Amino acid sequence: MASTVGVIFSSTNDENVPELTKVRSKGSIPYGGRYRLVDFALSCMVNSGITTVGMITKNNYQSLMDHLGSGKEWDLARKEGGLILLPPYSDESEMLYRNRLEGLKGSSAFLKKCNEDFVVVADSDAVYKLDYSKVIEQHVKTNADLTLVYHEHECGKVNSYMMFDTDKNGKIVSIDVNQPSTGVRKHYINVFVARTSYLLNLIQTAIARGYSSFSGDILIPAAKNGNIYGYKYDGYYHNIDSLTSYFEANMDLLDKNVRTELFGDRDIYTKINDAPPAKFTESAKVKNSLIHDGCLIEGTVENCILFRGVKVGKGATLKNCIIMSENFIGDNCNLAYVVSDKDVAIGNGMTLAGCKQKPYFINKGTHI
Q1: What pLDDT is attached to residue 177?
Q2: What pLDDT sits at residue 149?
Q3: d(CA 322, CA 326)
Q4: Pairing state between β 146-154 and 184-195
Q5: Per the confidence metrics, is the pTM higher than 0.90?
């Protein structure tokens, strides 16, 4: 694989999931019982041979820093390269970056110090497993200026994605941003590859011309006049752009085929927290659920994902719920379609319910 550096945005479109990003960045949202969203982009880079990764921070990044630490779990605790946290400022001022282009401007000093030929830029707001080396291989083969990774799927009722069309050779000929659309379209998954020198030149041009939008000022004009190609990703992909999509992405893990695709073959790495095995008493009834270390189950759990250290009391019934770490569910509770953040305590006999389209959310640290 050609020498490559990685750049990851840890906070993109946090406002789309305000329930989960009040106390954390998008990338540090817990997922699947033991992971964080950032684990997927970061693990994909490591598995693709990328050993220098810049993590662009922004708001509420204490949780992210606690999770990433020195980067040891991803084999990125290195004397040279490794995991590098980048400041959330757009330039030398103290203003936080307001958009993707300003975030890239803030990372230009990091990129200038890198000797790698190529750069992979990715968000940490989706669940997928992609071999970036194959994207770079196509990028070199087509001699593209930029290669944007896309996933083909049905358009939703509200489209906040960037979508594009390609010719028979895979070259992007038009780009639509936040435009109504129907049918199956090519959705950009916020991963692109470029030569490091080319991206730095784009950033310098953007600064000189006062550009403010990476998609509007750079990508759309380049699609008309430049040399941009698309790379089709055919695997499992789920973007987290609402509480509902977060719920759906977690529930997908109850499908064995999805679990095998995401966690078979190449690993998804995460921070290790040692805990005793889960304990199930004689009164426990568990069906089609993921129960993680440190849990104590005395009630009924069906179609649920329970993170570490969750206690479910006697006579309690949980169906279609996502319960994050260190939750206490009292005796004789009845929960359905509930997403409960960390450190929540629910007293005896409580009944809480949402629905598939609108799960009932409980804020971190709440006592009910």
Answers
A1: 81
A2: 97
A3: 12
A4: antiparallel
A5: yes
